[in-house]
């Protein structure tokens, strides 16, 4: 198997140079074609990789070192600039290759629409797939001002694909009336505002099941992550997000894929947002990988 690398520069800290040895494939999805407020998340994957070098490879939370897991950084997927439908198709094709080789996909976005084609492919390989979604926004619209390919729609598409009863949403504090009514009227496990307490209560329900985890960096309060396209006040802290990742890691769920999306570096000159994202990805690698 050969993955085409579409960028030159740093890879995520500690990545193996040999794809055959890897259990997990890191890849970037540099897309922000449908954002509704501020563009720039297409630059997120590259910057998250670059700032990952500030981190230690050892996690005192999980007492594991990145040398204990094998992962390969495949670079950014080359996407059709400005064409969301074609880009979604390209992302799906890439992830299909990862899954064919029985490797776990770990994506860096990019806007949140990129999660939709990944989950679509993962659901073909794993029966009874569940999705854990941490976000400020419900992302349950059918369209955004007539556009069905929008970063406001991926969780609606996912719910329709795998069944709303298999979608678990946490931290939601923004959305339309229709989105909240849809979540509450269907069988979505919908937990607005809070993350840790409802997540920990939900995890036993998912024990033994394949789970995909998607994290929008704006689940954090803008005080902790100002570098994002659609900041929403009232979010959780970076410590709470790390604790949520660790709770998933220590539970009995089988994580079969994950992503972290919506980092837009231009809006955070302090770089705390990409550094936080890199640390979350480090904890995902150590907690979710084999």
Q: Summarize this, please?
A:
The chain has helices at residues 44-51, 84-100, 115-125, 154-162, 177-185, 196-202, 238-250, 272-288, and strands at 24-29, 58-59, 64-65, 71-76, 104-109, 130-134, 167-172, 189-192, 210-216, 254-261. It contains eight helices and ten strands.
Question: How confident is the prediction overall: mean pLDDT?
Answer: 94
Q: Return the CATH architecture.
A: 3-Layer(aba) Sandwich
Taken as a percent bin, the fraction of beta residues is 15-25%
| Fold-level CATH name | Arginase, Chain A
- Please give the share of residues in helix: 25-40%
Main sheet makeup: 8 strands, parallel
Reading the helices and strands in chain order gives EHEEEHEHEHEHEHEHEH
Q: Span between N and C termini?
A: 20 Å
Structural class: alpha/beta
Strand order of the largest sheet: 4-1-5-10-9-6-7-8
Radius of gyration: 17 Å
Would you identify the CATH H-level superfamily? Ureohydrolase domain
CATH class: Alpha Beta
Give the number of domains.
Answer: 1
pLDDT < 50 stretches: 5-9
The total count of strands amounts to 10
Q: What sort of overall outline do the alpha carbons produce when their principal axes are compared?
A: globular
The helix tally amounts to: 8
Description:
The chain is α/β, with parallel strands linked by helices and 290 residues long. The chain has one domain (19-288): Arginase, Chain A (3-Layer(aba) Sandwich). It has eight helices and ten strands. It has helices at residues 44-51, 84-100, 115-125, 154-162, 177-185, 196-202, 238-250, 272-288; strands at residues 24-29, 58-59, 64-65, 71-76, 104-109, 130-134, 167-172, 189-192, 210-216, 254-261. Helix 1 (44-51) packs across helix 8 (272-288), helix 2 (84-100) runs parallel beside helix 3 and helix 3 (115-125) packs parallel to helix 4 (154-162).
């Amino acid at each position: 198997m050969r993955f085409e690398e579409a960028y030159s520069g740093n890879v995520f800290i500690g990545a193996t140079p040999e794809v055959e040895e890897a259990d997990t494939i890191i890849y970037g999805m540099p897309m922000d074609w449908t954002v509704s407020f501020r563009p720039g998340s297409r630059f997120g994957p590259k910057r998250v990789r670059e700032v990952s070098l500030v981190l230690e490879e050892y996690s005192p939370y999980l007492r594991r070192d990145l040398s204990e897991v094998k992962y390969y950084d495949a670079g950014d997927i080359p996407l059709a600039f400005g064409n969301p439908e074609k880009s979604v198709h390209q992302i799906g094709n890439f992830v299909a290759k990862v899954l064919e080789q029985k490797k776990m996909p770990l994506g860096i976005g990019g806007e949140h629409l990129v999660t939709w084609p990944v989950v679509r492919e993962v659901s073909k390989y794993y029966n009874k797939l569940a999705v854990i979604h941490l976000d400020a926004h419900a992302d349950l619209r059918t369209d955004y001002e007539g556009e069905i390919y929008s970063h406001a729609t991926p969780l609606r598409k996912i719910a329709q694909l795998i069944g709303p009863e298999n979608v678990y949403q946490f931290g939601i504090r923004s959305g339309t009336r229709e989105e909240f009514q849809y979540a509450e009227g269907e069988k979505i496990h919908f937990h607005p505002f809070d993350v840790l307490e409802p997540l920990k209560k939900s995890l036993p329900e998912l024990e033994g099941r394949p789970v995909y985890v998607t994290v929008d960096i704006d689940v954090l309060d803008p005080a902790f992550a100002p570098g994002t396209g659609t900041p929403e006040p009232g979010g959780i802290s970076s410590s709470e997000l790390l604790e949520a990742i660790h709770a998933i890691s220590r539970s009995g769920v089988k994580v079969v894929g994950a992503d972290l999306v919506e980092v837009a570096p231009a809006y955070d000159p302090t770089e705390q947002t990409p550094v936080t994202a890199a640390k979350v990805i480090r904890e995902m690698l150590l907690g979710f990988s084999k």
